[in-house]
Structure to design on (854 residues):
């Protein structure tokens, strides 16, 4: 085979590569890299979340206040009017002799904060740097926490990633029911802020007549019961301990009633605080509070050691499971909110696939038939290139494990159009040369030469647009520009190199008297050298 | 099969002015539509919520309107049929920020009395995201035009670049005018379609220009109009065939591709038609009107070729060691 040139070899390998690597995607087998269907094709939930970072800043300032109070009390410094004023912690020093020791204390423990001194008045606030870090931490922590929760939920391959500087992208494919979607959303939104709080037994009987302000003046807080919102508890606002001392949480069942419950264990420090507190408070009640609702508030009968706590409530086994997942993955530093959301039911996804496949197949068939009718064997050769092109696109997308979306499919349809265009240009050029009386060999070689610059420049300009789109686009646009870019590159290989190689391979077999059959030319052209 | 065979060049350029006036009328109409009717930004850019509901059987659209209008949360909501008779779409300007519950649960309760249905899709975009997408979309458009201008100036000549971008602006303006006329929801896929028009229009123009560039070198006539006429005539069969096949492929998308890509394929249909028209009747005349001189170009090319030859000669001499 003297005609086996590099073009044919290259095309052949590209074809084989295309078929082999697109098989896992076409059969949707479990092995090998394959294309995943976008949420618009298989259904699912897509959310772009943002973190209420101002809440993270608020609680950061609050914690500065708490630790400041602790330090001031510890050092026996006399102060007045310690309070949180907007984004600042302010207090006034009463004894001038304390200035030196307080400056030392501040320099030692609060150096990373901004400290403003106005005489005896002190103001502590977050430096810009620290504020930025706090915000970033809140976002990072939210990404991590939500990812953990969704992974533990156990639905197929959720994606949780930071997008840009302050957004979180959450994608959960394959949600089948409304219930599952609701559970997933609840799980993402759950603050999972666990606190153990002591009931203020001295005033507890007055809880129903007390206003929130009055409770606050005693250093208390009124919280509702989770099952019966009318039932209220008066609790000391400073908790005994919180969820940060939790090591594990799981679902269990009560022995007698077989009701689901959540049991969790505390770490060493937490267990000790819990033990000490229960020892001191026998006969009093202690409330387990999750996200501002009291789940249980039993009487303490005796010291509880070991640090294992149970909460029961009227939950279903699913709810108990979701609560324990949220507790295990930790609390969100700041609440999240929705910036954009797309939720596509599985039936709509299936409809979308069907519709676009029908369009793709009809369009493809029409083009293939047209090419053969119009160009004869030359059209057939273009079609071989076209099929190879499709396989190549699928193979490259599979290798990158790219996501195929609806606009992505439109991109493929468009690429088919462009690949056909390249072959139309080439075939027209060859015909032109044949009409002008050039020899067959010269017509083919010259035809490819003439057509090349046009195809090249046209493809590069489109590629420029596609690359810019990919860089600036989001979601659906990215998918569209990706398939177009791959398609253009693949079509250069198949439509230009591939078909050229096939012509060179077939050249000795082409009957110069039957150019109508080979190139679809209407009148037989007199060929120099035709016998 | 062979449909196009031209023995003689078609005289496109003598009618260039008429087509120019026609194009100007089209552009002015499009701009008027854009400024009066305006683009109908969908939720991707304007923010808001879309809820797609499919009923068993025909959707009771009047009943749905009645129920929805009673809820103050859905004030100003529009309810329209979507594709088939059984599907409707509820559009509101509001976008709930809460992760839990949200529109899906609300609508489920709200419509409970209207029949058996399934909520198939909820799209929700907050205002900040919409604004961001708009900026990014415009950035993408401007950057790709700049990139293409640079590439074409480098490959052809500045006048070719200017003429092709003029044709491009022509096509995009008219396409957007059509979007305003039919009040198509402008969402991300429409942006993708506009950018595809951009690519397609250029593709078409570049192929015609490539032929003109070739014609300048090979056609004897010193008149640019002659060169353009002959070159355009020679690409006419390709232009028509490709446009027709592309048009057909896009038409199948439009007819069978489903409601979701309706706007997308509609935009492309318009784009294919104006893109083909503009490469022959807009881009080429502009090239002529920009006073592109065939004679100058040939002289420049000849001079460049001569320089190149001299350089080659010198190099040859250098390599042979004669210098």
């Amino acid at each position: 085979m003297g005609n086996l040139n590099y073009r044919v070899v290259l095309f052949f390998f590209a074809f084989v590569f295309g078929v082999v690597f697109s098989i896992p995607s076409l059969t949707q087998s479990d092995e090998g890299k394959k294309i995943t269907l976008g949420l618009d094709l298989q259904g699912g939930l897509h959310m772009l979340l943002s973190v209420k970072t101002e809440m993270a800043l608020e609680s950061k300032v609050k914690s500065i206040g708490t630790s400041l109070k602790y330090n001031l009390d510890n050092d026996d410094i006399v102060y007045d009017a310690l309070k949180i004023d907007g984004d600042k912690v302010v207090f006034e020093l009463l004894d001038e002799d304390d200035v030196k020791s307080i400056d030392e204390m501040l320099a030692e423990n609060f150096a990373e904060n901004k400290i403003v001194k106005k005489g005896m008045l002190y103001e502590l606030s977050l430096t810009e740097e620290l504020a930025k870090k706090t915000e970033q931490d809140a976002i990072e922590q939210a990404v991590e926490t939500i990812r953990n929760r969704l992974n533990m939920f156990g639905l197929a391959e959720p994606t949780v990633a930071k997008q840009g500087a302050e957004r979180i992208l959450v994608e959960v494919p394959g949600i089948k029911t409304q219930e599952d979607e609701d559970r997933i959303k609840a799980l993402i939104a759950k603050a999972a802020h666990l606190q153990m709080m002591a009931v203020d037994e001295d005033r507890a009987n007055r809880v129903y007549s007390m206003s929130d302000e009055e409770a606050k003046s005693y250093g208390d807080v009124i919280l509702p019961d989770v099952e019966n919102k009318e039932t209220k508890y008066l609790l000391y606002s400073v908790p005994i301990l919180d969820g940060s001392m939790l090591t594990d949480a799981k679902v269990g069942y009560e022995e007698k009633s077989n009701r689901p419950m959540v049991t969790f264990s505390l770490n060493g420090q937490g267990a000790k605080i819990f033990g000490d507190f229960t020892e001191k408070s026998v006969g009093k009640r202690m409330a387990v509070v999750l996200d501002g609702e009291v789940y249980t508030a039993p009487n303490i009968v005796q010291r509880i050691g070991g640090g294992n706590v149970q909460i029961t409530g009227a939950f279903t086994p699913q709810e108990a499971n979701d609560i324990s997942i949220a507790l295990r993955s930790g609390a969100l530093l700041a609440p999240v909110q929705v910036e954009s959301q797309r939720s596509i039911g599985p039936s709509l996804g299936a409809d979308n696939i069907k519709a676009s496949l029908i369009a793709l197949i009809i369009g493809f068939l029409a083009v293939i038939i047209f090419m053969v009718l119009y160009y004869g064997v030359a059209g057939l050769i273009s079609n071989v290139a076209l099929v190879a092109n499709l396989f190549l696109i699928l193979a490259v997308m599979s290798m990158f494990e790219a996501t195929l979306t609806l606009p992505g499919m439109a991109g493929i349809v468009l690429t088919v159009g462009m690949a056909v265009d390249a072959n139309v240009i080439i075939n027209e050029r060859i015909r032109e040369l044949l009409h002008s009386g050039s020899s067959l060999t010269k017509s083919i070689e010259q035809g490819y030469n003439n057509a090349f610059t046009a195809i090249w420049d046209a493809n590069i300009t489109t590629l420029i647009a596609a690359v810019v789109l990919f860089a600036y686009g989001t979601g659906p646009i990215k998918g569209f520009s990706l398939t177009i870019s791959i398609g253009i590159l693949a079509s250069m290989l198949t439509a230009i190199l591939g078909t050229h190689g096939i012509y060179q391979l077939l050249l000795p077999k082409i009957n110069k008297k039957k150019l109508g059959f080979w190139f679809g030319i209407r009148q037989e052209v007199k060929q120099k050298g035709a016998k | 099969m062979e449909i196009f065979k031209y023995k003689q060049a078609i005289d496109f350029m003598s009618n260039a002015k008429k087509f120019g006036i026609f194009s100007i009328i089209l552009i002015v109409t499009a701009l008027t539509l854009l400024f009066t009717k305006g683009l109908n930004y969908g939720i991707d850019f304007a923010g808001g919520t879309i809820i797609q509901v499919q009923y068993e059987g025909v959707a009771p659209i009047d009943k749905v309107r009645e129920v929805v209008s009673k809820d103050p949360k859905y004030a100003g909501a529009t309810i329209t049929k979507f594709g088939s008779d059984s599907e409707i779409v509820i559009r509101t300007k509001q976008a709930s920020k809460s992760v839990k519950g949200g529109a899906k649960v609300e609508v489920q309760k709200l419509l409970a009395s209207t029949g058996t249905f399934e909520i198939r899709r909820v799209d929700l975009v907050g205002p900040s995201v919409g604004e961001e997408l708009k900026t990014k979309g415009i950035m993408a458009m401007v950057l790709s035009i700049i990139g293409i201008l640079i590439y074409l100036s480098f490959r052809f000549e500045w006048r070719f670049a200017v003429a092709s971008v003029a044709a491009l602006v022509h096509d995009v303006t008219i396409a957007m005018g059509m979007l305003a006329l039919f009040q198509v929801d402008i969402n991300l896929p429409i942006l993708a379609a506009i950018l595809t028009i951009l690519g397609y229009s250029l593709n078409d123009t570049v192929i015609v220009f490539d032929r003109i560039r070739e014609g300048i070198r090979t056609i004897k006539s010193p008149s640019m109009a002659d060169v353009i006429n002959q070159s355009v005539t020679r690409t006419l069969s390709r232009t028509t065939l490709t446009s027709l096949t592309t048009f057909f492929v896009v038409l199948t998308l439009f007819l069978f591709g489903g409601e979701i890509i309706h706007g997308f394929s509609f935009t492309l249909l318009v784009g294919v038609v104006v893109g083909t028209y503009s490469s022959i009747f807009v881009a080429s005349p502009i090239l002529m009107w920009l006073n592109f001189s065939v004679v100058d170009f040939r002289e420049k090319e000849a001079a460049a070729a001569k320089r190149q030859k001299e350089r080659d000669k010198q190099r040859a001499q250098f390599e042979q060691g004669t210098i």
Notes: The CA atoms of residues 515 and 521 of chain A lie 6 Å apart. Chain A touches chain B through 81 residues (CB under 8 Å).
